[in-house]
């Protein structure tokens, strides 16, 4: 099997970008990650139909892992798969995004209660978080919002892992693909790399200080920061105009 670079979107249409499958534990998971990356990048639109044959050609894999990936994303609520209609990307409306963010706040507040102390015991882990903040800045400077989002996602993943709470970790990972899609929808409208770095540095400093009360407040403010900014502006034609891209509609 050859996984090649291409300038076509996962739906089979030209995208103008170079994309490769990310590494994951299974081929189906790689395909699922590829689809989620494309949704986050705006290469696949909400409501768009995903065609197995187009994905199979694009990724040079059989339809078996494609089908498994679609089922995986259906189970996670990212795709809606119905007989005779195929797989369509679920709309991430304001209510859905609010619920994802609220779930994140609850999980990460739990994570910080234990992660803060564990991280202070391991300076090398704090340095890893600093490196991720620097990576956010580099990617944002290049206006690569998907990679900026992934660095942001990794920052919060490391905190959840540092909590050593297997339930929090499992639930957070179940949300991770949803979070990446939300990042793709929101961070690219913010387009503010320095501010993003400042917010994460503030969180890191509160971890170093061991100030759990302020961390509890800060994590909620950080996660919900964009949900209070004219939610309707993220919908409809205004959102498409900011993206500067036409909707990609699959054929076949």
Task: Describe this structure in a few short sentences.
The protein has 252 residues and is mainly alpha-helical. It has helices at residues 27-41, 52-59, 63-75, 94-120, 123-141, 145-162, 166-190, 193-209, 212-223, 236-243, and strands spanning 6-8, 14-19, 49-50, 79-82, 86-89. Strand 4 (79-82) and strand 5 (86-89) form a beta hairpin.
SSE topology sketch:
Elements: E1 6-8, E2 14-19, H1 27-41, E3 49-50, H2 52-59, H3 63-75, E4 79-82, E5 86-89, H4 94-120, H5 123-141, H6 145-162, H7 166-190, H8 193-209, H9 212-223, H10 236-243
Antiparallel strand pairs: 1-2, 3-5, 4-5
Helix pairs in contact: 1-3, 1-7, 4-6, 4-7, 4-9, 5-6, 5-8, 6-7, 8-9
Overall geometric form: elongated
Give the CA-CA distance, first to last residue.
24 Å
Order of helices and strands: EEHEHHEEHHHHHHH
Which runs of at least 5 residues are low in confidence (pLDDT < 50)? 1-20, 232-252
Whole-number mean pLDDT:
82
**CATH class of the largest domain, anyone?**
Mainly Alpha
Number of strands: 5
> Structural class given helices, strands, pairing?
mainly alpha
User: Strand portion, in percent?
Assistant: 5-15%
Helix coverage percent: 55-70%
Any guess at the CATH architecture of the largest domain? Up-down Bundle
Number of domains: 2
- Please summarize the sheet with the most strands: 3 strands, antiparallel
Q: What is the CATH topology classification name of the largest domain?
A: Four Helix Bundle (Hemerythrin (Met), subunit A)
- In order across it, which strands form the biggest sheet? 3-5-4
> CATH superfamily of the largest domain, please?
GntR ligand-binding domain-like
Q: Output the number of helix runs.
A: 10
